[in-house]
Amino acid sequence: MEQKIKQDDKIHIGENVREIRLQRGYKQTEVVRRMQLIGETMTRESYVKIERGIQHISASQLRAIKEVLKTTYDELLK
């Protein structure tokens, strides 16, 4: 069973993902496409929900986002 990481009032993973994505100049569809290319199943709809903080993110999704955005876990989890 895959673990899900809950976003709460102290950790804003979705906001951090969105901020980093915009800094890198990527569109949401580009991030999703790159995630799919490295083997992570993701739809744009799910990705949008993660950025908005309304869907929990799995550990494998977080790892894929980290790789695609070329960032660190520290930046994603701040």
UniProtKB/TrEMBL annotation:
MF annotations from Gene Ontology: DNA binding
PROSITE patterns per record: HTH_CROC1
Pfam families: HTH_3
Domain of life of the source: Bacteria
Entry-linked InterPro entries: Cro/C1-type_HTH, Lambda_DNA-bd_dom_sf
Stretches assigned to the HTH cro/C1-type domain: 17-76
CDD domains documented for this protein: HTH_XRE
Name of protein: Helix-turn-helix protein
Source species: Kineothrix alysoides
Lineage, broadest ranks: Bacteria, Bacillati, Bacillota, Clostridia, Lachnospirales
